Amino acid sequence: MAETRIQILNQGPIIIAGHADLIDDQGNTIPRREPMALCRCGQSQTMPFCDGIEKGHMKTCSRAKNIL
Ligand code: FES
């Protein structure tokens, strides 16, 4: 099975490349896109996917050095 990669973009969405099931809060599978860009700002009109509206509005990024 291919490896799944999850990447947090600087001031942008979370990118998921590889196999992953996306499940909503009621247990339903959301049709996937490849790669998937999941909204991290809460402003997307196409939730849970990023539609690019965050550009210029997000100020933070999660980086390994800040978490460890
Ligand atoms: S992170 Fe892209 S619309 Fe929210």
How does this model look, in words?
It is a single chain. The chain has 68 residues and is mainly beta. The chain has one domain (1-59). The protein is built from one helix and three strands, in the order E-E-E-H. The protein has one helix spanning 64-67, and strands at 5-8, 14-17, 36-38. A three-stranded antiparallel β-sheet has the order 1-2-3, with no helix packed on it. The longest helix has 4 residues, at 64-67. The mean pLDDT is 88. The protein binds FE2/S2 (inorganic) cluster.
Question: Layout of SSEs?
Answer:
Layout: E1 5-8, E2 14-17, E3 36-38, H1 64-67
Antiparallel strand pairs: 1-2, 2-3
Bound molecules: FE2/S2 (inorganic) cluster.
Give the neighbour order of strands across the main sheet: 1-2-3
Mean pLDDT: 88
Oligomer: single chain
Q: Approximately how much helix is present in the residues?
A: under 10%
Count of extended strands: 3
- Which molecules are bound besides the chains? FE2/S2 (inorganic) cluster
Taking all Cα atoms into account, the compactness measure Rg is 13 Å
Please report which band the strand proportion falls in: under 5%, 5-15%, 15-25%, 25-35%, 35-45% or over 45%.
Answer: 15-25%
How far apart the termini lie comes to 29 Å
Helix/strand/pairing class, anyone? mainly beta
Global outline = globular
Instruction: Name the helix and strand elements from N-terminus to C-terminus, one letter apiece.
Output: EEEH
How many domains make up the coordinates?
1
| Low confidence ranges | none
Largest sheet: 3 strands, antiparallel
Helical stretch tally: 1
